[in-house]
Amino acid sequence: MIELTSVIRDLREELSRAIVAAEDESLHFELGPIELELSVTLERSGQAGAKIRFWVLESGAEAAMSSVSVQRISLALQPALAGRDRPPFISGRADAHEQ
Fold first, then answer.
1. Of 6, 8, 58, 94, which has the fewest Cβ atoms less than 10 A away?
2. pLDDT of residue 67
3. Of 36, 28, 35, which Cα lies nearest the Cα of 91?
4. Residue 88 to residues 29, 38, 75, 92, 94, Cα–Cα distance (Å)
5. Inter-CA distances, 6 with 12, 18, 21, 85, Å
């Protein structure tokens, strides 16, 4: 399982790399709303003041979690760059090791 905050952080990092890659490209794509659908479990520790944590299930893990309540959540994220009024542009090409 992966923490939801890690999933969003990794998505932000990937988008940041795509935005930087777009700077020297002639073809740009305007970045619009991003929709994620995730299978999650919830964890709440018994300590006073404890918070609920969302854990995202990795591929194939849902079947192994039959004794734990698994929920599906959908997130709609609207990306924006700090200090800019227009939507960011992205571009990118696969690295040599990606096919």
1. 94
2. 53
3. 28
4. 9, 25, 19, 13, 20
5. 10, 18, 23, 27
Q: Is the CB of residue 64 less than 8 Å from the CB of residue 9?
A: no
pLDDT, tens digit, for every residue of 33-84? 999 888 888 777 666 666 777 788 876 555 555 456 778 889 898 888 888 8
- Contact between 86 and 22 under an 8 Å Cβ cutoff? The reply is no
- Residue 7: both structure tokens together: 């999933």
> Quick one: which of 1, 12, 99 has its CA closest to 53?
1
DSSP code per residue over 27-83: S-EE---EEEEEEEEEEE-SSTT--EEEEEPPTT-TGGGTTS--EEEEEEE----TT
More confident residue, 48 or 30: 30
CA 62 to chain centre: 18
Helix (H) or strand (E) holding 90, with range, is: strand 89-90
